[in-house]
Amino acid sequence: MISAFAPVLDVRKTVTPQLRTDAGDTLLLLVDVAAGRQRLGASILAQTCRQMGSETPDLDDPQQLRGLFDGMQANLDAGAVLAYHDRSDGGLLATLAEMSFAGRCGVDVDLSGLGGDVLAAALQ
Fold first, then answer.
1. Model's pTM, two decimal places?
2. Do residues 74 and 66 lie in contact, with contact meaning Cβ atoms separated by under 8 Å?
3. 14 lies in a domain?
4. Most buried among 32, 54, 113, 117, by the most CB within 10 A?
């Protein structure tokens, strides 16, 4: 497990996983820094499925993560981000559920871009 912290220059420009219903229609985006590699070895999701997996999560291109950070900062400054949540080891469906619970709302999700086995892709 990796944890990190950084200074916050303006606490008013932070986001939580809570989906907001006061902003009209919005869009959730999945940013895949794993480049399609669904490595969830030893994750809680794998363990609940009684699997350990063979590949642990890793970062192949640190510059891509840096680009995500820089892009998020620019979008936060522009007020274009209302909520944020990492996909983490619970998978996409757990992320969506947690965001929905926090916002006390439901979501309509299009998973067609995840490939042929939508359930497997969404769980990872």
1. 0.74
2. no
3. no
4. 32
